[in-house]
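Students often ask what a 'structure token' actually looks like in practice. Rather than answer in the abstract, let us consider Glutaminase, a protein of 305 residues. Its sequence is given first.
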Amino acid sequence: MQDIQHILDSINVQARQFFGQGKVANYIPALAEVAADQFSIAVHTVDGQTYSSGDDQARFSIQSVSKVLTLTLALRHHGDDLWQRVGKEPSGTAFNSLAQLEFEKGIPRNPFINAGALVVCDALVGRVSAPVYQMLETARLLAGNEKILINKKVADSEYLHRHRNAAMAHLMKSFNNFNCDVDQVLKAYFSYCAIEMTGMELAKTFSYLAHQGVCVQSGRRMLSAKQTQQMNSLLFTSGLYDAAGDFAFRVGIPGKSGVGGGIIGIVPGQFTVCVWSPALNEYGNSVAGLQALEMLAEKMNISML
Ligand SMILES: NC(=O)CC[C@H](N)C(=O)O
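Now compare that with the structural description of the same chain:
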């Protein structure tokens, strides 16, 4: 549809007006080197149409967006048992907060904050023989590109500055909610975060969430229809951490952000969208990306409720 391309092109122009606001993540030194003034938007429809605008050839670190894929793979191996180890409630705290873990006996509030993703990663690492290879192969299959890679420099940089994530993992181990070797799980987790994709590859990767669990590209079933609906519900309530309510208010769709500046959004039955711009607000969400999704929701008249 010419219309969608037109809308994305106009959002690309408008979103760039927010350059200069926010800051590129610097607590992971390798990410701090990324140029802030970049923006892309990509839409992938459930009938396989693709539209993109802006710096759409640039690859970026998917960071916490990978938590959605980790949860998907872990659910495939563990099913509903996984929910005994991780909650389903919004945390209301920062993505890397440790505070609740102590009070809530090592059970993270949800799978999209770091503590939750680490438990999910632990569950996955405990079940598969080559967890990093399997994740990369899955990402390549879903995105439709064999050449997708993990940026080792970013993964190593995260490992070097792992103390907060390591503290969460050890705290959960003290509550018997962490089975594998902490270092092994952290390395897998950082490798997942350091996968690099274009916005279109990321939009394609999550096509199954808009398509009742079946990847549009490959036809592969990733989740049951019911699990897909549950995943989208959790993304709606917790995908943007302690800014999930604001995102629901402004955009109104399930979404997941990462500190690389990417945000995916899902409109079930219609399309997935990925926006990217590296400068982040105080919650760790892309400033221009949020503005772009708000514009998209308005221009395309997206309404989930
Ligand atoms: N919100 C994010 O994208 C955080 C991911 C990052 N790798 C971390 O563990 O801190």
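One point worth highlighting: Residues 2-299 form a domain with the Beta-lactamase fold (CATH 3.40.710.10). Ask yourself how you might have guessed this from the sequence alone, and why that guess would often be unreliable.
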